[in-house]
Specification:
451 residues, mainly alpha, Growth Hormone, Chain: A, two-stranded antiparallel sheet, 19 helices, 2 strands
């Protein structure tokens, strides 16, 4: 079937729900470690408490991918029902999260939230291959990078905005010790998740299956769906394209690094800038706010640079661009402990002047890395996936993200953290080294020649 090239606004609209999913992920990245600490968690316990994300991704995404490949409804489509179900569940979990009164409750809600986000996220990757001709893959995935950056940016900055503009005070706390600004940020995230997904669902159509695909879908309904799904996943693993295998280390090292970064940035900043890890101090609160600002900054860079990367990707090629992007981010993280929050680089003339200090330099580099991570591996993969298997292979590809996260959790929890002197700053330095390694492995990827 010949797919029609879509115009700019059609590609924007079809990906708009990606904004809501990434807003939710952004809230987790900048706030979950702090929430756990407010509820009494120790520094060394943080990795295991983040287990929900990778495990739910490992289980949910391949299954959802396989099921969505075999789903079709003339009224609801193939991927859109998964977008909507995921968004509804995620919104409920976001609303409940700030009311957590124990570590186990916050961890349980994170499991639900991550499962819901993964239900929505996986079909979104397949949606690009479903809707767009191959020549628009780069554009489609980089639009997702744009919305990743924009959604996560607003999620990261929301607490700081609420405090900076005097809507809420930094010291305002709920009965469980969680700041009031966290409560409002998660509520805003719940609304964003539902509204943006609805825009995509209501404005974007899906191509119907071919007669051959429809026969397969009808035949699969007569089989046990769980058995059929497992069989499809096993077969897909056995028939995995060579390009996909070569992408394993390209995904492993950067995603191990990003989990180190998200878990330990607040603590590393608190120790590096304020010389404390005591979560009861105002310094730790400042480090949490600064974490959101820095993460927001790298996501601003991400969505600002996403479209600029399109012609660069065409000129250099996806793997060369990915190498350069990961190397820039790795060097930036290695420089992070050398930077301070007192030397002002420039002032943004908004709301009386917003000071951008030296510490923000590393987040500029991370923005380039993040834009590439959200797009280039998927472009390298998309052209190698067999037709009709997009959902399942995108789901399996997500394992290349979550398996490194699971390995990171257990290795840091029981070995690496102590090996690196029980110092969160050293974990950030390790993340920098791993980003550079991922970039080097990307140069080894061989892509099939387009027809």
């Amino acid at each position: 079937m010949q797919k029609k090239a879509l115009n700019f606004w059609q590609i924007i609209t079809m990906n708009f729900g990606f904004f809501g999913v990434q807003f939710s992920f952004g809230l987790q990245q900048s706030n979950m470690s702090a929430i756990y600490k407010y509820l009494g968690a120790e520094e060394s316990e943080l990795p295991l408490l983040w287990l929900a994300g990778p495990v739910t991704g490992l289980i949910v995404q391949p299954i959802v991918g396989a099921i969505s490949d075999g789903t079709w409804s003339p009224k609801f489509g193939r991927r859109k029902p998964f977008f909507l179900v995921g968004a509804i569940i995620a919104s409920l979990a976001l609303i409940a999260m700030p009311y957590s009164n124990a570590i186990w409750m916050a961890a349980g809600l994170l499991w639900i939230l991550d499962a819901a986000n993964n239900i929505a996220l996986e079909p979104y990757r397949a949606f690009i291959s479903d809707k767009l001709p191959e020549k628009q893959f780069s554009f489609g995935f980089l639009v997702q990078s744009f919305f990743t950056g924009l959604g996560t940016t607003l999620a990261n900055f929301t607490p700081a905005i609420l405090v900076s503009f005097g809507v809420l005070a930094l010291s305002d706390k709920m009965d469980n010790g969680i700041p009031v600004y966290t409560y409002w940020a998660f509520g805003i995230g719940a609304a964003a998740s539902i509204v943006t997904i609805l825009i995509t669902v209501l404005t974007t159509s899906e191509y119907p299956p071919t007669p051959e695909e429809l026969k397969e879908i009808e035949a699969s309904k007569k089989e046990n769906i769980l058995v059929k799904t497992i069989q499809d996943i096993v077969i897909a693993f056995k028939e995995m394209p060579p390009t996909m295998k070569q992408l394993i280390p390209v995904m492993f090292f950067p995603w191990y690094a990003m989990f180190c970064y998200w878990q330990y940035l607040t603590s590393a900043l608190s120790l590096s800038l304020y010389d404390t890890l005591d979560q009861s101090t105002s310094f730790f609160n400042q480090a949490q706010i600064l974490t959101g600002n820095l993460n927001g900054t790298y996501n601003i860079i991400c969505f600002m640079i996403a479209f600029a990367l399109i012609p660069i990707a065409r000129k250099l090629g996806a793997k060369q661009l990915h190498f350069l992007s990961l190397t820039i981010g790795g060097i930036a993280l290695l420089c992070m402990p050398l930077l301070n929050d007192t030397e002002v680089l420039f002032i943004i003339p908004i709301a009386g002047g917003i000071k951008v200090t030296q510490i923000y330099l590393f987040s500029f580099g991370m923005g380039i890395t993040w834009a590439s991570m959200m797009a280039m591996p998927y472009e390298m993969l998309a052209s190698s996936i067999p037709k009709g298997k997009t959902g399942i292979y995108m789901g399996i590809f997500n394992m290349f993200i979550v398996v490194p996260m699971i390995i990171q959790i257990f290795s840091v929890q029981y070995f690496v953290y102590e090996l690196l002197g029980s110092n969160p700053i050293n974990i950030i330095l390790l993340a920098g080294v791993f980003l550079i390694l991922g970039g080097l492995f990307s140069l080894r990827v061989r892509q099939p020649i387009s027809e």
